[in-house]
Amino acid sequence: MNDWRVFLAVLRRDLRIELRTREAMLAMGFYALLVIVIFSFAFNADAALTARAGGGLLWVAFLFAALVALDRAFLRESAEASLTGLQTTPASPAAIVGGKFASSFLLILALEAVLLPLFAVLFNAPPATRWWGVIATMLLGTWALAANGTYFSAMSVHARQRGLLLPLLLLPVSIPAILAMVQATQVYLSGAGVANYWLKLLVGYDIIFTLLGLALAEVVLAVE
Fold first, then answer.
1. Do residues 7 and 102 lie in contact, with contact meaning Cβ atoms separated by under 8 Å?
2. For the chain, how many structural domains are there in total?
3. DSSP readout, 70-97?
4. What is the domain extent for residue 67?
């Protein structure tokens, strides 16, 4: 079977189901919005505070959204036993995992596109903010979370404590990427310069873990 066709079929199926049910988007939006609103009241955010700590606050909300989306990446397959059906087809495991990654990446990114303007308003983003840098960091950081999260979601899909296991597996491995996301976002929010080092770290991290996840796709899908 053509890997590209399998990839697109998995991607279209997941997006079509999500557009029909909106289960993941509603849960992601609720938690992320709750975090942003609570932080905006708790810190009485102003431009000076956002320039100092806005990157960390923003990525806490994004992480909540990403964990909800990634937890559900293979949940539907497990409940309907369709993962077993996918495993018995000639489809490439890398294409299946790639399709799941792409759907999770697009769902998380769609929510972040809504949350970012809301964050700018509630936290009174500094006028010097370089939004192109914030958006670039958001794209690279979301890619890192989706690449690792899809892999660990597949690994933990049959575990009883799946909701607990996923963050325990994902967050420690993602610490370098999370650090780079927060630091780069902070630099661009403050308008203090260009975070080339942190962006290069994210690019390298994305390449390594994307290739690693695709290479180990057959192994991780075989985990029962």
1. yes
2. 1
3. HHTTTHHHHHTTHHHHHHHSS--HHHHH
4. 3-221
